[in-house]
Design a protein that fits this description.
Layout lengths: L15 H18 L4 H33 L7 E7 L2 E7 L2 H14 L2 E10 L2 E10 L4 E9 L8 H21 L16 H4 L4 H13 L4 H8 L12 H16 L1
Antiparallel strand pairs: 1-2, 3-4, 4-5
């Protein structure tokens, strides 16, 4: 008979974090077997939980980085164009459905998912986007805004419009998404630096300042003439910070 080749599976090397979790579990098992006191058991359980949390956080970061590397620029599939007493408003944006169609398959591929938590009180709507990984780690991004009173909306429609608006913003902020720009409207002679957007770190700084100053996100974006915070140009970052710093000073007076 012809000899058959046998493929030998080599065990994968464990990362330092996985080794720490395994060691903590071994110590906990030994302590339970030897009848150790509750104080020892509790400390070992806390150690194990910390190691597992570290491992889950690392898995989350790696998965999110891999997912973002595969995400294309989101297409702006909706146009807003109306005229009010304050003049004409005209811009393109991507709706929540377009964002979901783009990101859901990629997030699922890497074990990531998202959901929203909504809170309404005293004329304000707060939406929290929770991005979670299958290993258990999750992170939250929260934004707030007043009810959308534009047009002839009734009270329910005003709340619903704001919720949808904030769901788009929080999801884009949580994932660091960028929407496609309007190439037809680009001015000749512009450079790449002119169109560069703020970094993820700068975006997070602005979001923290917005929350700390209780700034209405919709009005802030209107002031900056953008659809969402991640869409702010790098050249406009200083102006955005200055405006929020001024509001912070006024609030503390």
């Amino acid at each position: 008979m012809a000899a058959q080749a046998v493929e030998v599976q080599q065990p994968q090397a464990m990362s330092p974090v996985h080794r720490s979790v395994a060691a903590a579990n071994d110590m906990l098992s030994q302590a339970l077997s030897s009848g150790a006191g509750m104080d020892v058991i509790e400390k070992l359980m806390e150690l194990r939980d910390r190691q597992e949390a570290t491992m889950a956080r690392r898995a989350f970061d790696e998965a999110l980085a891999a997912a973002k590397a595969e995400m294309p620029v989101i297409t702006k599939n909706r146009t807003v164009d109306f005229t009010s007493t304050r003049g004409r408003t005209n811009y393109a944006h991507e709706d929540l459905g377009e964002i979901a169609r783009t990101v859901d398959p990629i997030l699922g591929k890497f074990g990531l998912s998202y959901r929203f938590r909504v809170k309404t009180e005293q004329g304000q709507v707060s939406v929290t986007c929770i991005v979670a990984h299958r290993e258990g780690h999750f992170e939250e991004t929260t934004l707030s805004a007043g009810h959308d009173q534009s047009g002839n909306k009734n009270s329910i429609q005003a709340v619903g419009s704001t919720i949808t608006y904030l769901q788009r913003y929080t999801l884009k902020a949580a994932l660091g998404l960028a929407a496609s720009s309007d190439d037809d409207g680009r001015t000749h002679g512009r450079t790449a630096e002119d169109d560069a957007l703020i970094t993820a770190e700068q975006r997070n700084t602005l979001l923290k300042m917005i929350e700390a100053t209780e700034t209405d996100i919709a009005r802030f974006c209107a002031y900056m003439k953008v659809e969402s915070v991640p869409d702010i140009k790098l050249s406009e970052y200083g102006r955005a910070v200055a405006m929020l710093e001024k509001k912070k000073e006024q609030k503390n007076v």
